Inverse folding.
């Protein structure tokens, strides 16, 4: 007959199974909530989509050695890009992003100009990939706002929480 010595420590199989079951239950309850919170954040989805679109148009401008415009229709909440000089009124652009419901383009400010908050505006991208500096403000119906800062020389776009001006970006 073997006896356990008092210095031997460990967990029984039943204790390990109970802990694993409790962890599984907690994960089963919490993971769907996290996933839905990440997917349903339309403002951040729109921000990331616009960042990707800006990077895409920069790459396309360099690849094709052509000047491009990233166009914003503030009333219809649409964003697209087009080659500079192409007819803008000729049908639908090939790459258009329609902002999801509840998200609006509040305004787009280029350089030191005050942001344009109505009609259509654009951000220019040169054939070398340089973009005109811009602050793009996206907002939700609940008042939450995000600012995208387009850097003129660096191929990156910075996302900042809240409504910020170009001076605050410097």
């Amino acid at each position: 007959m073997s006896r356990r010595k008092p210095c031997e420590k460990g967990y029984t199989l039943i204790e390990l199974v109970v802990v694993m079951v409790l962890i599984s239950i907690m994960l089963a309850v919490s993971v769907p909530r996290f996933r839905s919170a990440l997917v349903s954040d339309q403002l951040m989805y729109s921000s990331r989509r616009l960042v990707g679109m800006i990077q895409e148009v920069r790459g396309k401008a360099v690849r094709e050695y052509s000047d491009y415009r990233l166009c914003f229709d503030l009333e219809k909440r649409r964003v697209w890009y087009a080659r500079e000089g192409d007819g803008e009124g000729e049908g639908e652009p090939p790459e258009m992003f329609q902002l999801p419901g509840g998200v609006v383009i509040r305004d787009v400010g280029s350089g030191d100009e005050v942001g344009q908050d109505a009609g259509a505006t654009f951000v220019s991208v040169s054939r070398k990939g340089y973009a005109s500096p811009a602050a793009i403000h996206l907002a939700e119906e609940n008042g939450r706002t995000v600012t995208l800062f387009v850097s003129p020389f660096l191929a990156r776009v910075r996302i900042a929480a809240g409504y910020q001006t170009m001076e605050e970006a410097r």
